Amino acid sequence: MAAVVGIAFRDRSRHYWFDPAGLDLSPGDRVVVETVRGPEIGTVRKAAEDVSDERLSSPLKKVLRRATPGDEAQLVRNNERARAAFETACKRVRHFGLPMKVLSAEYTFDCSQVIICFTAENRVDFRELVKDLAGRLRTRVQLYQVGARDHTRMLGGYGTCGRELCCRAFLTEFAPVSMRMAKDQSLFLNPAKFSGVCGKLMCCLRYEHDTYTEARTRLPSVGSRVETTHGSGRVVGISVLKSEVTVALDESAAEVTLKPCDLRPLVSETPAPAPR
User: Fold this and answer.
1) Is residue 270 part of a domain?
2) Which range marks the domain in which residue 230 is found?
3) Which of 62, 85, 190, 269 is within CB 3.0–4.6 Å of 105 for a Cys-Cys bond?
4) What is the pLDDT of residue 60?
5) Per-residue pLDDT tens for 87-99?
6) Closest CA to 88 of 153, 146, 111, 96
7) How open is the CA angle 119-153-39, to the nearest 5 degrees?
């Protein structure tokens, strides 16, 4: 077991485990921590707790100190420099005629490098751009291409539900979303109907997928034959949320809606092959 504290580096982002180094920290505290990029300012999201060694993927970096007013002032200066770097990057992209869109620029706390994120339809050869920016900004430059979901998370906005985008409000990482999830929830298979602002399938399709999948196991499949109190028939529709089954009766061709407990499956009526 190891004592850890959860630190986040941006609003509404995931937190990472750090060694509290004996400091008594509470959620909301601002701290300076050691990272692979050097010292960074973060916010405590989870108070210190003991975590098993199996949950820790690498040796923990330490919390260096509580953030001082001087540290916060340095962060403000870094943000001002980042805005200037962003404008410079946009101008140089246009100068080189590169098919890419600059999204953000961020300086590390010690100003040893600037990280610039961009989006593009395809891979971009930005080697000349990096050299040009490094000379103009007089620091190391790192360029990262991000996808549509990350782009939308950075911009923010509201979904068709009227609420703030999940990726901006609380999601810390993106889980795979597939058309199969939409099909299992009986949605019309038109991606335009359940695509998010990013143009990808909406993340919320995944929220209730396990519930739908488990509920469908208690219902007969469409096309199967069943016996009802009204006679035998074939399943022509199901409602997962209502836990109801619509059956077309053989004799009258009428459709009746019943609960699964009012049905029993019929064995196949296909005759057995004659013996040779």
Assistant:
1) no
2) 225-265
3) 85
4) 84
5) 999 999 999 999 9
6) 96
7) 85
